[in-house]
Please model this.
Amino acid sequence: MFEETYLTRIEERVFKDTILQKETGAKIVGVYCAFTPKELIAAAGAIPVALCSGTSQAIPAAEAHLPRNLCPLIKASYGHALNDTCPYLHMADYLLADATCDGKKKMFELLADLKPLSLLQLPQTAETPESHASWLQELYRIRALLERRTGISITDAGLLAQIRIYNTLRATICEVFALNCGEMPLLYGYEIDHITSMAGFECNLPARIGEMREAIAAVHQRSKDTLFQKKMQHRPRILLTGCPSTNKKVLKLIEENGGVIVAMENCGGLKTAGFGVDETGDPMESLAKRYLDTACACMSPNPRRIDILKKLINEYRVDGVIELTWEGCHTYNIEAFTIERAISEQFARPYLHITTDYSQNDTGQLKTRIEAFLELLA
Model:
């Protein structure tokens, strides 16, 4: 139902909306990770756009400057900047980049030669009052930077208005995922990815929320079809966790071989969409708390990730967990040991850890491993 044409139509609408806003003076701000509060950008009258890349074509150019054994997500992002092959990056006036993993931090030093870039100094723990105070101070610095760049003053009232819009967006994304909480899942993982994708520029969010709700209505209508019900019966229910699924190779292999991804914990999924910003307190304090609490493997310790996984396993009736780690991502690769132990011992679910890159070289091997894992769950 929700094939490439669905996303293409939305991308065209979003692109047109962005051009109209840019012609009236709106700035475009590129972001690279889930820690950057997009509410701040929007409150300054600017348009956020996510720039992490999922394609392999730009990687050879990046490897002229970056190590070959670096994470493919980082190489793809930098390669597109070198080649000027990403329309979102091309249109960005400046970039906000979070200091998460070491690979990204060092790549951002090179990227700053290509685009104006400000690095957000992210504390490496969310567990202490000192880290929250440091992060709050950093967000105030970014607030002042955005005001200078856009010429627009960010008021607390304007910021609260954007917090409410983004909270509605998160709640709507959760509504899409929740369609898979029942006895029979109503969506494939690739369909969830299509429906919830922001299609690039984050402008006119009310329209994007409306499109998602239209999709939800269509899914409920399709669920009455007996042929669809038959297709969904007896498919092992998979929770996908780990690195951002920027490249869709593993997602497709799981569902082409008989599984259904009922939930995704990774960035862009329920780890980030499942938690809103407090609308009752000071908006800057609320933003600092919400974003610093993101359960990323770059944080140490990172107990919230296990809490989230437990919640999702129960709510989505998960049969098995597959963890995706991009080659060269040491933070997720090391944390996978802790995650496997929790999944296997605490939650009593089968676990499969896949380490791969963006190429198709290991597709056959991955297919064999995934098929064997799904047979174990059948």
In short: The chain has a mean pLDDT of 94.
